[in-house]
Amino acid sequence: MTLADGMTLRADVIGRSPGPWRLLVLCCLGYLLVLAAWSAPGPGADDAPVPPEQAIKAAFLYKFLGYVEWRRGALAGPASPIVIGVLGADDIAEALRTLASGRAVGDHPIEVRRVHPGDPLERLHMLFVGRTESSRVAHLAPLAQQHGVLLVTDFEGALDEGSAINLLVIGNRVRFEVSLDATEKSGLRLSSRMLAVALWVRPAH
């Protein structure tokens, strides 16, 4: 079985390991697989072909949806759409719309909307604010928390402005950091599996 960065682990070696060691190896293997899935390569990585940065970030936004427990009543019905708003990042909105086309999270289809300054947030479940609109995050954060919207950004210092999840490109890979304070204020819960592979998790106050 081949893992990220050329790491390999042979199944026959696991099979011959003593009980406690086998459990430890399997746990480490599971963690590495999850980390590899979340740490998508960014522009300039050695992997080829390299997707554009906006496509990678769109993939992260799509993946986040499966690890969020929304407020009770946030989804109107068992097959109602999960709505992602995108502000200040039309390229990511287009990449996300392409990625989400025909896909669903559980039974919920995904709807992508471009958001403009001043638009209401009530009907959104996630709001991604691109770096060109970073100055608006401090104003949008309390509104997102009020309406149970998961606020995601992609610029340095965004957690200090009230963002719940912030995407960063580090070492040519897209990673993410999380503010539990912001997610709890929004009435949202993130899966421990997602938190386990975050670059950093800011605890709730």
Characterize the structure shown.
The chain is an alpha/beta fold. The protein has two domains: 4-38, no CATH class; 53-202, Response regulator (Rossmann fold). The protein is built from seven helices and ten strands. The chain has helices spanning 11-16, 19-38, 53-64, 90-100, 137-147, 180-185, 192-196; strands spanning 68-69, 82-87, 104-105, 108-114, 126-129, 150-153, 165-170, 173-179, 189-190, 200-202. The strands form two sheets. An eight-stranded mixed β-sheet has the order 3-4-2-5-6-7-8-10. β5 (126-129), α5 and β6 form a beta-alpha-beta unit. α3 (53-64) packs across α4 (90-100). The radius of gyration is 18 Å and the shape is globular. The N and C termini lie far apart (42 Å). Residues 1-36 have low confidence and may be disordered.
Q: What is the structure about, briefly put?
A:
This protein is α/β, with parallel strands linked by helices and 205 residues long. The protein is built from seven helices and ten strands.
The count of strands amounts to 10
The CATH topology of the largest domain is what?
A: Rossmann fold
Q: How many independent structural domains? A: 2
Biggest beta sheet attributes:
8 strands, mixed
The secondary structure category is: alpha/beta
Q: Provide the CATH architecture of the largest domain.
A: 3-Layer(aba) Sandwich
Tally of individual helices? 7
Mean pLDDT: 82
What's the alpha carbon Rg, rounded to whole Å? Answer: 18 Å
Q: Unreliable runs, pLDDT <50, ≥5 residues?
A: 1-36
The CATH C-level name of the largest domain is Alpha Beta
Main sheet: which strands, in order across? 3-4-2-5-6-7-8-10
Q: Distance between termini?
A: 42 Å
What is the molecular shape?
globular
Helix content: 25-40%
